[in-house]
Amino acid sequence: MVLKPPKISLIRTPFEINKGEESNLDWDVTVFSPEVVNIVIRVKRKGKQEAKILFHWELPASKLSGPKKVIIPLNDASDLCEKDDSFSSEAPELQLCVLANIFGLIIIPEQSKLKESDDDSGRAVEKTICHVEREPAKISLIKTPFEINKGEESKLVWDVTVFSPEVVNIVIRVKRKGKQEAKKLFHWELPASKLSGPKKVIIPLNNASDLCEKDVSFRAEAPKLQRMDSGSFRISCSITLCPDISKDDGAEILIEVKQDTSENTSTESTVLKVKADNFCILY
């Protein structure tokens, strides 16, 4: 029987990491079989070729024999680890859980602590974990009115959910029938500079429209990023549409979202269907 590989949740980090203050990083590891488990944490700093091993935790087979236990502590196998004053942690515990009649084992690490320190060159190191690969942004389905009438303004609305407070770019394009290239209508950006300083619940995005082309069928205002109780971030977006049947019938609206630390670009689209009798729908 082929067993599922372990799963690692998103690394939960504070909204901000301030110089000289301790911050906690935590995550869950889910394993689906009670076997030997090794968890290794490394840090790779800018300008360094090799990653430094910070912690090594192990669940050996010997701890899995005998009576069943609900909670089993992992061993601290740190013989080959290098001490680093920026980080401290304790070995986590394995906890048996039942989810939808499927047995799983969740390893819950103690919260790793990040502090300000110097790297080997003597330069201050801050926000060491800011470039961890994260889950890509998610775009909801584009909500449209049931009917869009010629000459009347209508709104296309959608939400963008991001899971880390980093540089975010949202680009909206339209591709009309018979055209090879999509036209760039809007470009909104949340730069890193807006994420520093005091914690904010709502942060407006910049209107980075230098390379956009004006189009009389569309207008919009830059949206705002809102921090949610769950720790994720929501950006509620909309554009106002007043379609011209001669050029907008069959036009495709394309939305792209990119974050600096993600290799993936999230996309969503919808097609305009404009009818000659002054009536149009979106699907």
Quickly describe the structure:
The protein has 283 residues and is an all-beta fold. The chain is built from 1 helix and 26 strands. 1% of the residues lie in helices and 43% in strands.
Describe the structure.
The chain has 283 residues and is mainly β. The protein has one helix at residues 245-248, and strands at 7-8, 23-25, 29-31, 37-43, 52-59, 71-73, 75-76, 87-88, 93-99, 102-108, 112-114, 117-118, 124-125, 138-139, 148-149, 154-162, 168-175, 183-190, 202-204, 206-207, 218-219, 224-227, 233-241, 252-259, 265-275, 279-282. It is elongated and about 75 Å long. Residues 116-132 and 278-283 have low confidence and may be disordered. It folds into 2 domains: 7-131, no CATH class; 138-282, Immunoglobulin-like, CATH 2.60.40. The protein has a 7-stranded antiparallel β-sheet, with no helix packed on it. Strands 14, 16, 19, 21, 22 and 23 form a 6-stranded antiparallel β-sheet that branches. The two termini are 44 Å apart. It contains 1 helix and 26 strands. The longest helix has 4 residues, at 245-248.
